[in-house]
Amino acid sequence: MVRSLPPLQRPKTIGGLLYFGVLALTVVGLVVVGVSSWRRGITFLGAGLLLSAVARLVLGEYDAGMLRVRRKWFDVLLLALTGAVLIFLAATIPNQPGQ
């Protein structure tokens, strides 16, 4: 007997939709890293994390959906700090000689 997969469901919250937007931005960043400029790609990754931090801060507990992992302050702090550090590193790491 062959089992069929359950039908796909759309996200039920705004946070779920934003989660997929952040995921798409992350994929774009990784593609940019692989194809061309690692600095620009890492900046995309950091921007996605900052976007998710702002969304987690603004949205309520239920509306945060898949962005909600821990307590709000912890989620916002971790996402914002990681995004800011990635952007800072991409902007400040010097080029290697011969590049």
Q: What can you tell me about this protein's structure?
A:
- The protein is mainly α.
- The protein has 3 helices and no strands.
- The chain starts with 13 loop residues before the first helix and ends in a 7-residue tail after the last helix.
- The chain has a domain of 63 residues.
- Helix 2 runs antiparallel to helix 3.
Keywords summarizing the entry:
about 100 residues, mainly alpha, 3 helices, flat
Percent helix: 55-70%
| CA distance, first residue to last residue | 59 Å
Molecular shape: flat
Which H/E pattern describes the elements? Answer: HHH
Q: What does the main sheet amount to?
A: none
- Please give the number of β-strands: 0
Number of helices: 3
Based on helices, strands and strand pairing, what is the structural class? mainly alpha
Mean pLDDT: 86
Poorly predicted spans? none
The proportion of residues in beta strands is: under 5%
